[in-house]
């Protein structure tokens, strides 16, 4: 018998042990009966589960009846339970001193109990051993506390928790969790909080690891403040080395971008004192082991790129690409090549917009910047523009649009520091007024182009000062949506000696007097192009301008509601050099006035464009007495003028036999009857014909066009001509050998017509549009492969019978062709 068994106890103690066991069993039975009614209520109201874990050191081989497989007993009474538990305690007390393996007894709130070996490989099982009530649990806890007072045992734990099976030891080893323990002699009683925190890793307060190991301290160059790091980086020799240093971190990138040229030069060898220089020449520099050894005779210095050696690159940032970080990176990266020569910023990143930080980095890193364009940059202020002015004296072109924070201060800084400025565009900058324009005119004598639009603070004073100060160089003027009056036009007419291009748009305060004074000033002797949009131009003012501008070649009048047939005749009679006339939304102009002006005008008019002139009405017949003259008109464009019909177009063909470019768009009243005389009357050969939206044109007119002008026709557009079928494609394939651009979108062609066109031997199409052709299927793709030697553009949008898979396969074979689908 093993000495740990009860039979090995001294004989005098045996009666005492059995009497004690009997007494405890009886007491437990009485307690169980008393609290029987309270037992169910306690179980229902219990919301937390209790685990009683008793760790008792036990040798596994001494007591197989206890340490072996756990016996399973269902619903044992309180007496048997406490007898069993107490016997475990008493029988295992001698073995505690020996220090054996561990055993646990687990009792949950559901009244079940189990016991298992702690050190064994068998996983713990929650076997049902007994069902007890809360009062019995309390008695069991007292028994356990009494048993734990026995010396020579390791510190075991009495733990209150949930039903999780734990493998011995404390559930919480952190400092925070250990505060929940109540130390009673050699027993630890754990009182959990309302909700058990599931923490497995030990809790270590912040900074205690350094307290335990004082030698473990952070040591990094990033711990230095920005001022110290700036002093280190500005002493890095070579622009290439500084660019490489920018790759370390964003912080280094920002610091390197803030280094000016003067800061770098201060750390050059010339700034070293003579005493230090006398000592430095005796020191031999240490070799760089990271680089391969190179013979000093063969080693050459890094070449420095100047303007004549390499052209400065240009960058364009659009939308979300426009950020300060990207600008800083470009500034540092291109610094070793002289920086950027041209920077275009289109759009704005709403989350990270471009600010003065990024623009300042560009200014410091690109001293040779010549072109700067800022569109929709609401975060850039006068500070950023001043930085550009201070660091980029070679700036030649400045384009500012929708920059509400830039005022006269920034424009004045540009004017004072950038004397080579030749082109200035300012739009939608509400803080810029007359002061900025006056500074530009005073300091920038090389200015040849200026565009001012949508500036509420600009008036006659700013425009007059700008034009009069740069009269010797200014060639292009564009004024749009300003509050200027006739006084500004008078100054332009007097001082615009070199002006060649002039644009007036949306100037509500300009009247007939302004145009008359401008033309009478006789200062616009070199004016070649005049565009007037929504201004108060009249017949008298327009005639005065034509007389005062003898070299006027292009005139565009849009939304001129006061212009009539008389003014048009006077204009063409006075403008002897006029070659291009564009009339848009001039509703007082009639068909008789147009033909009268052409017949009575000069012989140099080459191009006539009419758009949305609702005053033009078609005539039923034209008189036979119309002279069959030969007008020099070569280009005719009539767009969305519903009054132009068959008779009008036929008359044009009779009067203008030298036409080469015809564009008749949206003429729903035009049919074959009017187009055929025009085609037959053009004896010079048509090169470009556009009949978009002429829904009454049929295959007869297209076939006649192909046969008559197939040797010269290069571009043909038949978009929206619903009556055009495969017959037209057959005529084109047989006659138009120079055709390189064909558009038959939204027409009635089918696969047979495409096959005939693609199989033609002499056809060399480069661009073909089949968009919206509902009768085109995947069969056409097989025939279009024959055009692979010349086709570079193909439009297959809204072709519903062609699947996406077929287009993808076709695109793989036609890799040189750009396909829209």
Structure description:
With 821 residues, the chain is of the alpha/beta class. 35% of the residues lie in helices and 14% in strands. The protein contains 30 helices and 26 strands. Helix 21 (539-548) packs parallel to helix 22 (565-574) and helix 27 runs parallel beside helix 28. The chain is extended and about 145 Å long.
Short description:
Its main location: nucleus. With 821 residues, this protein is α/β, with parallel strands linked by helices. The protein is 35% helix and 14% strand.
Strand content: 5-15%
Radius of gyration: 49 Å
- Count every helix, treating DSSP H or I runs of 4 or more residues as helices: 30
Helix content: 25-40%
Broad shape: extended
Structural class: alpha/beta
Number of strands: 26
Q: Which sheet architecture does the biggest sheet show?
A: 20 strands, parallel
Distance between the termini: 95 Å
Low-confidence parts? 1-7, 40-78, 88-132, 150-204, 206-212, 265-310
Mean pLDDT: 75
């Amino acid at each position: 018998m093993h000495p740990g068994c009860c039979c090995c106890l001294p004989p005098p103690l045996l009666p005492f042990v059995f009497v004690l066991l009997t007494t405890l069993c009886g007491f437990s039975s009485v307690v169980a009966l008393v609290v029987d009614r309270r037992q169910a209520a306690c179980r229902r109201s219990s919301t937390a589960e209790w685990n009683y874990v008793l760790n008792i050191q036990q040798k596994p081989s001494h007591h197989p009846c206890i340490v072996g497989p756990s016996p399973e007993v269902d619903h044992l009474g309180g007496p048997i339970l406490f007898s069993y538990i107490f016997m475990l305690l008493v029988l295992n007390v001698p073995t505690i001193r020996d220090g054996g393996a561990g055993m646990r007894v687990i009792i949950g709130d559901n009244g079940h109990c189990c016991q298992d070996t702690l050190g064994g490989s068998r996983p713990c099982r929650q076997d049902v051993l007994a069902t007890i009530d809360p009062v019995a649990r309390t008695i069991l806890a007292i028994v356990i506390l009494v048993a734990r007072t026995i010396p020579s045992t390791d510190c075991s734990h009495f733990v209150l928790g949930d039903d999780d099976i734990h493998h011995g030891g404390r559930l919480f080893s952190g400092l925070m969790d250990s505060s929940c323990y109540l130390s009673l002699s050699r027993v630890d009683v754990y009182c959990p909080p309302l909700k058990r925190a599931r923490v497995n890793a030990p809790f270590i307060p912040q900074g205690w690891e350094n307290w335990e190991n004082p030698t473990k301290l952070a040591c990094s160059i990033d711990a230095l403040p920005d001022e110290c790091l700036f002093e280190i980086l500005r002493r890095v020799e070579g622009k290439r080395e500084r660019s490489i240093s920018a790759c370390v971190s964003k912080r280094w990138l920002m610091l390197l971008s803030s280094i000016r040229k003067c800061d770098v030069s201060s750390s050059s060898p010339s700034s070293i004192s003579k005493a230090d220089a006398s000592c430095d020449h005796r020191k031999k520099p240490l070799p760089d082991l990271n680089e391969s050894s190179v013979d000093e005779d063969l080693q050459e210095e890094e070449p420095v790129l100047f303007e004549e050696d390499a052209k400065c690159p240009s960058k364009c940032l659009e939308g979300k690409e426009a950020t300060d970080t990207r600008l800083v990176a470009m500034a540092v990266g291109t610094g070793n090549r002289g920086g950027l020569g041209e920077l275009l910023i289109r759009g704005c990143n709403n989350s990270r917009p471009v600010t003065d930080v990024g623009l300042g980095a560009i200014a410091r890193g690109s001293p040779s910047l010549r072109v700067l364009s800022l569109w929709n940059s609401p975060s850039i202020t006068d500070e950023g523009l001043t930085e550009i002015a201070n660091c980029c004296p070679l700036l030649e072109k400045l384009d500012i649009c929708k920059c509400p924070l830039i005022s006269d201060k920034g424009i004045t800084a540009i004017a004072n520091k950038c004397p080579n400025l030749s082109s200035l565009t300012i739009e939608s900058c509400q803080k810029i007024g007359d002061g900025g324009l006056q500074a530009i005119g005073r300091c920038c004598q090389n200015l040849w182009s200026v565009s001012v639009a949508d500036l509420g603070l600009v008036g006659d004073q700013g425009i007059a000062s700008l034009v009069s100060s740069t009269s010797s160089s200014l060639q292009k003027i564009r004024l749009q949506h300003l509050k200027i009056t006739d006084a500004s036009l008078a100054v332009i007419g007097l001082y615009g000696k070199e002006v060649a291009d002039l644009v007036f748009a949306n100037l509500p305060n300009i009247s007939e007097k302004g145009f008359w004074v401008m033309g009478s000033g006789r200062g616009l002797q070199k004016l070649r192009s005049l565009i007037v949009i929504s201004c108060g131009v009249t017949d008298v003012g327009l005639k005065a301008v034509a007389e005062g501008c003898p070299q006027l070649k292009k005139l565009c009048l849009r939304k001129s509601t006061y212009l009539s047939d008389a003014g048009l005749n006077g204009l063409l009679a006075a403008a002897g050099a006029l070659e291009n006339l564009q009339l848009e939304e001039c509703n007082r102009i009639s068909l008789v006035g147009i033909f009268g002006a052409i017949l009575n005008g000069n012989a140099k008019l080459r191009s006539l464009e009419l758009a949305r002139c609702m005053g033009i009405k078609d005539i039923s017949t034209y008189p036979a007495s119309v002279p069959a003259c030969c007008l020099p008109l070569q280009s005719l464009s009539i767009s969305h003028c519903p009054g132009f019909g068959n008779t009008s177009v036929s008359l044009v063909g009779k009067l203008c036999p030298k036409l080469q470019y015809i564009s008749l768009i949206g003429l729903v009243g035009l049919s074959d009857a009017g187009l055929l005389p025009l085609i037959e009357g053009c004896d010079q050969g048509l090169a470009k014909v556009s009949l978009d939206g002429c829904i009454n044109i049929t295959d007869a007119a297209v076939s006649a066009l192909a046969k008559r002008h197939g040797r010269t026709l290069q571009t043909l557009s038949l978009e929206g001509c619903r009556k055009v079928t495969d017959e037209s494609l057959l005529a084109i394939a047989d006659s138009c050998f120079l055709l390189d651009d064909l558009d038959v979108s939204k027409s009635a062609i089918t696969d047979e017509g495409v096959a005939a066109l693609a199989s033609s031997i002499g056809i060399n199409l480069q661009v073909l549009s089949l968009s919206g052709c509902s009768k085109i299927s995947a069969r056409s793709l097989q025939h279009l492969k024959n055009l692979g030697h010349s086709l570079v553009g193909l439009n297959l949008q809204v072709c519903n019978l062609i699947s996406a898979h077929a287009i993808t396969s076709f695109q793989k074979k036609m890799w040189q062709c750009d396909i829209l689908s």
